[in-house]
Amino acid sequence: MDIQVLNNVNPLEFNKLYNMLNSITIPLTGEKAGEHGNRRGFPRHRRLVLGITRSRFGGLIGLSHDSTKYPEIFEEIVRIGDRICPFKFTSIHLNKNVTCPRHKDTNNKSKSMLVSFGEYTGGNIVIEGQIYDAKSNPIIFDGSKLEHWNTDDLQGTKYSLVYYCI
Question: Nearest CA to 164 among 114, 101, 97, 100?
Fold first, then answer.
């Protein structure tokens, strides 16, 4: 397995972003007309998709709606990524309090970097049966090849950032 655990990030690095995120209501998947969630098996959850994205229907590539709706948050997430992500990224997925079921990211084309922050316990990432704590601890892996999910013991407020390249 090709899993890389990076050096711990000072939790203070996330304070500004944490406060910004707590000042908005992050949309639930399925809030748009006709949308029932973003994946089969995933519960409805709060998330933002930032940076360059490919539309689900039609395949158009461009800056995401969330990036233009929340430009200050987008800028702060990019600033953090530029400091801690060792590879070029075009896109960021932000989740709030998500407990993912077992899955592979079949549309991913390369590695991703996951890091979490907030006032929480539990909700660890499990990659191919091995448990990792991503709280202020970036983890790089290829989610298209490695099955991963979260433990179901999350308590508190957890944000996760997933940096990747489309």
Answer: 114
Residue 78 to residue 55: CA distance in whole angstroms: 21
At 129-140, the pLDDT tens digits run: 999 999 999 999
User: 46 and 53 in contact (C-beta within 8 Å)?
Assistant: no
Cross-strand pairs, 91: 51, 164
Strand-pairing partners, residue 50, are 92
pTM strictly above 0.85:
yes
Domains detected in the chain: 4-164 (3.60.130.30)
DSSP three-state, residue 80: helix
Q: How far apart are CA 91 and CA 27, in angstroms?
A: 18
- E-only strand ranges, the chain: 4-5, 46-54, 61-63, 91-96, 112-121, 125-127, 130-132, 139-141, 148-150, 155-164
